[in-house]
Design goal:
Strand order of the largest sheet: 2-1-4-3
Largest sheet: 4 strands, mixed
Order of helices and strands: EEHEEEHHEHHHH
GO molecular function, one term: very-long-chain enoyl-CoA reductase activity
Strand content: 5-15%
Pathway: Lipid metabolism; fatty acid biosynthesis; Lipid metabolism; sphingolipid metabolism; Sphingolipid metabolism
Number of strands: 6
Shape: elongated
Family: Belongs to the steroid 5-alpha reductase family.
Domain TECR-like N-terminal: 5-80
Structural class: alpha+beta
Distance between the termini: 52 Å
Mean pLDDT: 88
Membrane topology: Multi-pass membrane protein
Number of domains: 2
Length: 338
């Protein structure tokens, strides 16, 4: 069996960083990263991006050396991706923040609305209902992060947590300030508007959870690793959504299946869209916006919808490219339209 020699150069300076001798031909990029870490421990595998060209795309961890367009002496170029943090940590942080922040405004802790309103309670039922819905949504997200979602990439750049938390925490504070304000006025059409909005919110929350479970169940439970060890969710930045990009990935591999409806009626939306989890997520926030009749909530819904549409289109394109028999009637996020 012939062996390979692997030379790893800095993608920017072309400085030789490492030379690996007698590398097995069936070695994967992930294994090469582990070998590289032994000589440069400051660059653990999650920080490494190895590529065939200094300005090319990063090679996948599962790529096999002998299947790459290289000779027996392979030259790879290294880029440092920077400090990494686990997706689970990011999601728990960005979801716990809005839950805690909203409650600060709901209980009207000191220094928010003025001394005379400290720890007072709103007389409007919709304010209390909104708090229940908002809290339920983020508790659901936290539990899904721990027990449902799996990530195809175990880490993400550390800098992203600041961007993500600014988005989630900032919007949570903005909408909570107005909804729980002593001068807040209930929706124009009163109880009827609130009841309709609540129905939309509850249905969409149940639908969102059902889709997440259906995506998870595409693989036998025994094949799923512990959180953060591989696999994937939806994902990310997660603006307004279970953030989670590709939920149909098999953890530890890149194998994917086409998700189809199950016996659960909430999953029947798979007949019409590729990413019904995003559809339901947007619907939840639309319901919450109708319930509270609050402009910051409407803006949060719009921004979230925009981001999730981008994710849904990308996922839809990847499905079409990967599966020749992909259902032709499906749209990315909105049936028949988008």
């Amino acid at each position: 069996m012939k062996h390979y020699e692997v030379e790893i150069l800095d993608a920017k300076t072309r400085e030789k960083l490492c030379f690996l001798d007698k590398v097995e031909p069936h070695a994967t990029i992930a294994e090469i990263k582990n070998l590289f870490t032994k000589t440069h421990p400051q660059w653990y595998p999650a920080r490494q991006s190895l590529r065939l060209d200094p300005k090319g795309k990063s090679l996948k961890d599962e790529d096999v050396l002998q299947k790459l367009p290289v000779g027996t002496t392979a030259t790879l170029y290294f880029r440092d991706l920077g400090a990494q943090i686990s997706w689970v940590t990011v999601f728990l942080t960005e979801y716990a923040g809005p839950l805690f922040i909203y409650l600060l405004f709901y209980f009207r802790v000191p220094f928010i609305y003025g001394h005379k309103y400290d720890f007072t309670s709103s007389r409007h039922t919709v304010v209390h209902l909104a708090c229940i819905c908002h809290s339920f949504h983020y508790v659901k997200r936290l539990l899904e992060t721990l027990f449902v979602h799996r990530f195809s990439h175990g880490t993400m750049p550390l800098r992203n947590i600041f961007k993500n938390c600014t988005y989630y925490w900032g919007f949570a504070a903005w909408m909570a300030y107005y909804i729980n304000h002593p001068l807040y006025t209930p929706p124009t059409y009163g109880a009827q508007q609130v009841k309709l909005a609540l129905a939309i919110f509850v249905i969409c929350q149940l639908g969102n959870f059902s889709i997440h479970m259906a995506l998870r169940d595409l693989r036998p439970a025994g094949e799923w690793p512990a959180p953060g060890k591989g696999g994937m969710v939806v994902g990310r930045l997660g603006k307004g959504g279970s953030h989670l990009p590709l939920l149909s990935c098999l953890p530890g591999s890149k194998t994917r299946k086409i998700p189809y409806p199950t016996k659960n009626p909430f999953t029947w939306l798979f007949l019409l869209v590729s990413c019904p989890n995003y559809t339901y997520e947007v619907g939840s926030w639309i319901g919450f916006a109708i319930m509270t009749q609050c402009l910051p909530v409407a803006l949060f819904s719009l921004v979230g919808f925009t981001q999730m549409t981008i994710w849904a289109k990308g996922k839809h394109r990847s499905y079409l490219k990967e599966f020749r028999d992909y259902p032709p009637l499906r749209m990315p996020i909105i049936p028949f339209l988008l």
